[in-house]
Design a protein that fits this description.
Order of helices and strands: HEHEHEHEEHEHEHHEHHHHHEEEH
Shape: globular
Strand content: 15-25%
CATH superfamily of one domain: Spore Coat Polysaccharide Biosynthesis Protein SpsA, Chain A
Oligomer: single chain
Helix content: 40-55%
CATH architecture of one domain: Alpha-Beta Complex
Number of strands: 11
């Protein structure tokens, strides 16, 4: 064997070890029970909106049907002509007794338009427990009671939860959902086990008003690309414990073209690379399948090489099925052939993430510095609105 063949074989072993650990972490997560508590403080839900895509009506409606004593929903847009306003008006008519407030405010706090929207919504918040939720997530009626429960412990500073991708019926959306369900979900659990949790996931963030004020409010996040990650970091540094609940929310994956999928995932990749450069570099071991599949069979045609490829492929396919089951999704044998394709695409995006610091939102270009701060390349109002749509 040459050194290249030995290196590829070692990569196969390490990659297999990672996915076996991921299977163990996901199994442990699946065994966790939901938090049951009578703790039910009054809550304000902050929902920054832009546009009516991502199945907005279904998402907002799920928040209107919570089995919870008392809560307020504050939704906001930058423009009164935003299509989201019509959806909100429909829900106001459908749930006239629910405390829902629509805020229209184009004030900018910083480069990150989602954070500016949140700051505008915050001024209308009545209650001291705040829940920030992405516009494209859909939840069950027990969601609010479950995700708020950990705050009964005064040591908890922030609560967050993981999410699963629900794809529209096309190839690109399917590949996008696979990235969330078969890479992000298990990697988040492995990271939490190995390093603990000191950051948040933006689909859901629950915290107290006094903790938000303690870190400087939304102004502290005004120029951050990964505002959710930064929020969890700041609260952790202030001594607040960050908790990931057992609850998993649904997020709509609506990529209609390869370009939609590619630019979104390249943005995520460059975000991760900026925030955790060392960890991101070594995350290539999670993408060992396409490297080993091509490399070992080309450089070292032997029974051992074939066996290494087949074992790693079997572990990856087993993981794809197991992760779907853990997320409550029906396994689709017809999608298993896409696993090597998905890994090859992820590997290409991983490599390209090191070439440049530009990210695209809504067709507009931003630059990310080494500290994760955004610089607008397009300062037009339309550019900001399109960026806000991507971020909301």
């Amino acid at each position: 064997m040459g050194w290249l063949a030995i290196g590829l074989l070692l990569l196969a072993v390490v990659s297999a070890g990672y996915w076996l650990e991921a299977l163990r972490c996901v199994a442990a997560f699946r065994r966790r029970t939901f938090e049951r508590s009578s703790f039910a403080p009054r809550v304000t839900i902050l929902k920054p909106l832009c546009g009516a895509g991502g199945h907005l009506y279904e998402s907002l409606r799920s928040f209107c049907e919570q089995d919870y004593p008392e809560y307020q929903i504050v939704v906001g847009v930058r423009d009164a002509d935003d299509p989201a306003v019509k959806v909100v008006s429909q829900l106001l008519a459908e749930f006239p007794r629910l405390d829902v407030r629509l805020v229209v405010n184009d004030r900018l706090l910083g480069t990150n338009p989602k954070v500016s929207n949140l700051a505008n919504l915050y001024e209308a918040a009545k209650y001291d427990v705040l829940l920030i939720a992405d516009s494209d997530i859909c939840v069950g009626s027990d969601y609010l009671r479950t995700v708020v429960a950990p705050l009964a412990d005064p040591r908890v500073g922030l609560v967050s939860c993981l999410y699963r991708g629900i794809a529209d019926r096309n190839l690109w959306a399917t590949l996008g959902a696979m990235f969330i369900n078969e890479w992000f979900f298990p990697s988040a659990l492995v990271g939490a086990r190995l390093e603990g949790v000191a950051h948040a996931f933006g689909a859901t963030v629950v915290l107290r008003r006094d903790m938000l004020e303690k870190i400087g409010g939304f102004a502290a996040l005004a120029d951050d690309l990964a505002d959710d990650y930064r929020l969890g970091q700041l609260i952790s540094r202030e001594g607040g414990r960050v908790v990931i609940t057992r609850y998993v929310v649904d997020t709509a994956v609506t990529a209609a073209t390869f370009r939609d999928l590619f630019l979104r995932e390249l943005r995520w990749a460059r975000t991760y690379r900026t925030l955790r450069p060392v960890g991101y570099f070594f995350s290539v071991v999670t993408l060992g399948l396409p490297i080993v599949l091509v490399g070992l069979l080309v450089t070292w045609r032997s029974t051992l090489a074939v066996a290494a490829v087949l074992v790693l492929l079997a572990i990856r396919l087993t993981g794809a099925v197991a992760f779907s089951r853990a997320l409550g999704l029906p396994p689709s044998p017809r999608r298993l052939w896409l696993v090597p394709v998905r890994d090859a695409l992820s590997l290409a995006i991983w490599a390209l993430s090191f070439v440049g610091r530009t990210v695209y939102w809504g067709g507009r270009r931003f630059r990310v510095d080494r500290e994760g701060k955004l610089t607008r390349a397009d300062r037009s109002a339309r550019g900001l609105a399109l960026a806000a749509k991507e971020m909301g």
